[in-house]
Amino acid sequence: MLITASPDVKASEITPRGVYEARRQFLKAAAALAFAPGAAVARQALSTKPGPYSTMEKATPPDLVMSYCNFYEFGTDKEDPSRYAPKMLRTRPWTVQVDGAVKNPRTFGVDELLKLAPLEDRVYRLRCVEGWSAVVPWVGFPLAELVKRVEPTGSAKFVEFVTLADPKQMPGLRAPVIDWPYAEGLRLDEAMHPLTLLTFGMYGEILPEQNGAPVRVVVPWKYGFKSAKSLVRIRFVERQPATAWQKANPDEYGFYSNVNPERDHPRWSQKTERRLGTDGLFARRRPTLMFNGYAEQVASLYTGMDLMKQF
Ligand code: MTE
Fold it and tell me: CATH code at 240?
């Protein structure tokens, strides 16, 4: 089991003020350059409209979010995904199979999928189970938009997300860290919740490979590992699907994995977190909020459930 509580922030991770803006300008200029498939490329700008539910908190500097990543298919060090994914992951052509208990099963090309509904900017808090957090401006649309179009049947109770597992593109698959492919799941009502975002970009541009290009899911009230990257299949099922981390260690990782400061991980407390880039080396960790601060929107999904047992 490799997920561990993270050590305190390194001085090198603290990005000076202004770097975000400078980087944005650089990205805009770079986006004008030729697109070179398979290489570390300039990101393309995405046109969006402001979405609801965005936090007013300051976004984490993009260079941090793009270099301090969890994407075990590329290795378990935080720098491995940004080192290998831009060179190795081919994000076009790319298809996402949407099937199972639905009236209209369909395989979408990712560019088709991207045009299914208007893209929105959504600034969400991301809380990793390891104890760090970030504020990320994602670009996407509610997963519900896709769900409505494929029309789940009465027997669809859960949604399973399956992600790419290609040993030719993903050197991390050589290590049996989890039972590949990385798979996740949500209850259908969680998948339909307006906060759940089918995500194609961040910081106004297409997703970097290391952050789950070309399409991932983002579920902001759950620990980050529920937000599966580089999706190839979305399947509607009757029974609760097995998920990668739950299979790897059911005592430590549950199906729901809602952010809950009252329920400690068996090996560390979940009461506090450190915010990447903004909490200085000696700054106090900040308290973690129930449902990662989204209780008002999502608590009613869990009425009557014992969240200490169904974690
Ligand atoms: N998706 C896949 N396919 N593989 C992974 O290893 N890691 C998860 C999640 N999605 C992971 C994944 C974890 S533990 C976290 S915290 C988030 O991605 C991190 O997303 P970020 O690197 O874009 O911040």
Answer: 3.90.420.10
Residue for token pair 């259908």 = 188
Q: Is 28 helix (H, G, I), strand (E, B) or coil?
A: helix
5 part of a folded domain: no
Which atom in ligand 1 lies closest to the alpha carbon of residue 69?
22
* Residue owning the nearest CA to atom 23 of ligand 1: 211
Instruction: Give the span between the Cα atoms of 186 and 177, in whole angstroms.
Output: 22
Number of domains comprising the chain: 1
* 75 belongs to a structural domain: yes
**pTM of this structure:** 0.89
With a cut of 60, say whether residue 21 has pLDDT above it: no
Residue to substitute in 227, 231, 249 for testing ligand 1 pocket (most ligand atoms within 8 angstroms of CB)? 227
The three-state secondary structure class of 185 is strand
Q: Which domain holds residue 270?
A: 11-302
